Amino acid sequence: MGTLALLHASQLVTLAGAKRPRIGKELSELGVIRDGGVLIRDGKIELVASSDEVERNLTALSSQVSGAPNQLEVVDLGGRVVAPGFVDAHTHLVFGGNRLDDFERRARGETYEQIAKAGRGIWSTVQKTRAATEQELFELAKKRVAWFLKCGTTTIEAKSGYGLTLEDELKILRVIRRLNDETPLEIVPTFLGAHAVPRDLSPDKYVDLVINEMLPRVAKEKLAEFCDVFCERNYFDVEQSRKILTAAKMLRLKLRGHVDQLSNFGGAKLMADLGAMTADHLERTDEQGIAALKSAKVQPVLLPGSVYALGLKEYPRAREMIEAGLPVVLATDFNPGSSPTPSMPMILSLACTQMKMSPAEAISAATINAAYSLGRGDRIGSLEVGKSANIAVFDCEDYREIAYWFGLPRTHSVYSVGERVL
Amino acid sequence: MGTLALLHASQLVTLAGAKRPRIGKELSELGVIRDGGVLIRDGKIELVASSDEVERNLTALSSQVSGAPNQLEVVDLGGRVVAPGFVDAHTHLVFGGNRLDDFERRARGETYEQIAKAGRGIWSTVQKTRAATEQELFELAKKRVAWFLKCGTTTIEAKSGYGLTLEDELKILRVIRRLNDETPLEIVPTFLGAHAVPRDLSPDKYVDLVINEMLPRVAKEKLAEFCDVFCERNYFDVEQSRKILTAAKMLRLKLRGHVDQLSNFGGAKLMADLGAMTADHLERTDEQGIAALKSAKVQPVLLPGSVYALGLKEYPRAREMIEAGLPVVLATDFNPGSSPTPSMPMILSLACTQMKMSPAEAISAATINAAYSLGRGDRIGSLEVGKSANIAVFDCEDYREIAYWFGLPRTHSVYSVGERVL
After folding, report:
1. Complex prediction ipTM
2. String of b and e for B131-158 (b: at least 16 CB within 10 Å)?
3. Which of B354, B356, B406 sits opposite A340 (nearest CB)?
C-alpha cells in the first residue's frame, strides 16, 4: 500500500460535497479542480486539491517516510481528466453462453417478446447457466470483470437470476462473492431469483420456492445485500412481486426492482410502497409513477443500453425525472440478451444523445448517485477525503469528452482502493 | 518483413471470392474457415486455409529458410476470430479543436441546423483548423490514427473540408499524405473543398474558387484520389455540386458525395448521373434515388454514427437498399460535429440494432464492399492470396460477437501489411 500522489489532472472531477444523492441542478455540480491532484494513503483519499497543494503535502510527507522511499509513488497524469471510478448499479454479470442467435433474430425484425415466446430469450441463458459449473461461471465472469475495469468502472452491482433453482441461484451468488474477493472490482450482490418463472413450475409454486427456500438460504449465507424482482406481464405480477420483496425485507435485504420496462405495469408505485432503494428501467412509467418514486425517495436507475440494443425507440424520460427532482442513476444493465455492454462511457453517450442529459448530469448519475443507490454514498462515488481511492483516468482534457467520443472508451488508467488495476 | 503464420483462428472470416462488391445474399457469404490460418510473406497473403494446411506449408518453408530462423514467426491465435482489417470509407480525420459545446447544446435540445446557424457547427471547426499549423494538425490526427487501429481498422478514407481556403485545404491534404506515409494506417485522400461555403464569400464565388484554384492545385500535387461535395440546402445545391464534380472528373479525380442527409435533395440522382463511386449518407433518399444508384452502380455509404450522435431517429433504409441489390458500405463518418467515433465495431452494432442488417451483412459492408468503394477491392478487404495482409484479431469465438458486444471493441491485435501494429 503506502502513499500515492496523482498530479496534474487537467480537470479533477471530484463530485465532492453531497451528503445524499444529487437532484435537479446539483447534478451539474461536478466540483472540478483544474490542474488537480489526489493524495492517497493505504487505499484511502487523504487530500484532494490543486497539484501545487498536493505537492507541498508530499514534500512534508516524504521527509517523514524517508526511511522507506519505495513506499511513495508520484504519478504525473499529464493533463488528463480524472474522475471517480464509475459505479455501475445494475448488471447481470454471471451467466453461461451468449445470446448471439437472439441478436441475429432481432436484426431480422423479431421482437424481444417473440424471441422469448419461441423458447429463447432468458430461458436459453438459464439452461446454459445451469449446465455450467461454479468454476466455469467464475472463469467466464472474470473475463468480463476485466472489461468493466477497461471502461473505468470500479464498482458494480451484480444479480443472480439465470439459475432459477435453489442450487443454481446459490451457485451464481457464490461466484459473485468469489469475484468480489479475488478481483479488483468491487461487486455488490443482488438476489434476483424472481427473474423469470422456470418452465417446469407454475408462477405461484415458484414464488413459494423463492420465498420459502431461496430467500432464507441467501440471507443465512449472507450471499446478497439486495433482493430484486422482474415485475412485468408474463414474469411476476404486482402482487407476486410484493410478496417476494416483502419477505426479502423481513430478512433485512434491501430492495431493487425491474419495473415498467415493457409496459406501465404499476411497478414504480410498488417500489415506492415498499420503500425500495431503486426502481430500475422505467421506460413506460407515467407521471403518477414518477410522483410515487419522488415522495418515497426511491432512486430511478435508467438503462438506455437495453433500449438501444433491442432497437427500441422509447428511452426512459430522464428529463422529466430530473425536473421532478428524482436522484437519477445510470447503469449498463450488462446482460447477454438485451444489453451486451460493460461500458459506462457508452451509457453516458446514450444518455446525452438519446435522453438529452448533459454530460455533467450523466457523470453524477454514473458515480455519486449510483454509489448512494447501492448504500455506499459515504465510501465511494466521489473524490473526497476518507473515501476509497477508486479513480478513473481518461485520455482527454475535458470531462465532456468521456461522453462525447463513443464506441471506444477513453480510459487511460484505473485505480481501485489505491492500487493501479489498468 | 519475412514470413508470418497466424494459426488457430476459431473462425477465419475470409470474405474470399468476390470480383466486385457484394450484393443481396452475397453479403452474408463470409467464407468462414474454422480453425483457420494465414501464411504471410513480405506483407502479402500467401495462403489462407485450415491451420493444419498452413502448418504443413510452414514445415516445408522453414526448411528453406533455415539459414535465417528469426525471419519466420508463428502466432497461435488461441481460438480467436480473425477478419480482414476494417476499411472505413468515410472519415473527416484532420481537424482542429472539438465540438464539445455543440454536443452539450444538442443535449439541451438544439438541432444540428440551429447550432450551425448560431455560427457554431462546421464553421467553428474551420476556424480552429485554419488557426492550427500543419504540424499541429498532424500531431492531433496521429493520435486519432491510433484510435482507428485500436478498433481493428487498417484503411480509412480521409477528407479535407475544414480549411475552405486554397492554402488551408492543401494543408489538410498534406497532413493526410504525411499520416499515410508515417503511420501504419492506409489513408485514401479525398478533396472536400465544397464542405461548406466560407462566411466571407458568396456561394458562386466560392464554387469558382474550388473549381479554378483548388481543384487544379490538388490534382497537380496529386493530393487526392477523390473529390467530394456536400450537396444540401445551405451548402451546395445540385447545380453547384454538378459543376464542381464535373470539373473534378475532368482532372481524373473519382467522385463521392454527401447527399440526401438532411433532405431528399436530389443528390443520389446526381451521383448516379455523374457515375460517382459512392453516394454517402442517404438518410432521406427515396425509391427513385435508390433506383438511380442501382442503375448507375453507385455504392451507397451508410453512416449510422451521425444519425445516432445527432439524436435523430431516421436511419438510412439499409434493408430496402440491400433488397434493391445495392452494394452497401458502412463507415464511421468520423468527425467532431456529428459522429465522434473511430469505431467500426460500433458502426456494426448500430447497423444490426438500428438498421436491421445481419452481422454478416454488416461485416461485408465494412470490409470488402468498402474496399471496392475506394477502388481497392483487388488489394484489401478480404483474406485472399496476393492481397495485403491487413488483419484484425478479435477476442471472441464467433464473428457475430464483433457487432454484438457494444461500446468496447473486442480487438485483440491488428496487422497492417503483415506487421503487427496493435
Report:
1. 0.97
2. ebeeeebbebbbebbebbbbbbbbbbbb
3. B406
